[in-house]
TrEMBL record:
Lineage, broadest ranks: Eukaryota, Viridiplantae, Streptophyta, Embryophyta, Tracheophyta
Subcellular location, principal: nucleus
GO cellular component term of the entry, any: nucleus
PROSITE patterns: K_BOX, MADS_BOX_1, MADS_BOX_2
Cell location: Nucleus
Gene3D superfamilies associated with the record: Transcription factor, MADS-box
Gene: AGL15-1
UniProt protein name: AGL15-1
SMART domains for the chain: MADS (SM00432)
CDD domains, per the entry: MADS_MEF2_like (cd00265)
Parts forming coiled coils: 95-122
Length: 258
């Protein structure tokens, strides 16, 4: 089987492309050398790689071959100058076509500038009724598109404002809840600190109970008893006198028994 044909196109892989370049370059220079030897020809090959590296081959010297090439170019140019006017006209036809295309493009640019001036309401003197109506329609379409764009921008701004308002409301609600939680936490902590203080200083507790009129009935009763003892009346003294006599008689009887 013969070797299949390779499709000639750019190799995308950089490594594969570099390997192929090296192989093909060596083969090209080898073929050029063989051609120069077999056919007694003056051959020169100049190759630049994709990275800008120079590779060259010349069997007679590169400078000598290039000077010979330049002489041939000069002689061909002089031969072109000495040609007949008819040949010169044939060669100048493509240039004339290029000039025509340039003139056409200039005319189109001028027309577009004129239309632009008309759209800006700066040059309406030479326009007919039909052209004015057409211009009016285009301006109305432009105004409608401008209004639609403005409405769209306003709607976007309103939507953005609503989103920001909702965020602010949520943040305010969160702050209110936090404040309520702090308010509910402060009284309990104050009460616990007050209880701990009274446990450390019980005298302060009793004084506070007397001041505020709070406490158990026994404490109030004891206070009342102390006050009665401090302010004894005559009836109490009379009651205490027989008790003293009884105590003295009992002591005397005990002494007699002893």
């Amino acid at each position: 089987m013969g070797r299949g044909k390779i499709e000639i196109k750019k190799i995308e892989n950089a490594n594969t492309r570099q390997v192929t370049f090296s192989k093909r370059r060596v083969g090209l220079l080898k073929k050029a050398n063989e051609l120069a030897i077999l056919c007694d020809a003056e051959v020169a090959v100049i190759v630049f790689s994709s990275t800008g590296k120079l590779f060259e081959f010349s069997n007679a010297g590169m400078r000598q071959t290039l000077s010979r090439y330049n002489k041939c170019l000069d002689s061909s140019k002089s031969a072109l100058i000495e040609k007949s006017p008819e040949a010169a006209l044939v060669e100048n036809k493509p240039q004339k076509q290029d000039f025509k295309e340039v003139d056409t493009l200039k005319d189109e640019i001028a027309k577009l500038k004129e239309k632009q001036m008309q759209l800006l309401d700066k040059d309406l003197t030479d326009m007919s009724m039909e052209e004015l109506q057409h211009l009016e329609g285009r301006l109305n379409e432009g105004l409608l598109s401008v209004k639609e764009r403005k409405e769209q921008l306003l709607m976007d701004q309103l939507e953005h404002s609503r989103v920001q308002e909702q965020r602010a409301m949520l943040e305010n609600e969160t702050l209110r809840r936090q404040v309520q939680e702090l308010r509910g936490f402060l009284p309990s902590s104050e009460h616990s600190s007050r209880t701990a203080y009274l446990e450390l200083y019980p005298e302060e507790r009793s004084n506070s109970l007397v001041k505020h009129g709070s406490g158990s009935p026994d404490i109030v009763h004891n206070c009342a008893v102390d006050l009665q003892l401090g302010l004894a009346s005559e009836d109490c003294r009379k009651r205490k006198a027989p008790e003293k006599d009884n105590c003295s008689s009992n002591s005397r009887s005990l002494m007699s028994l002893m």
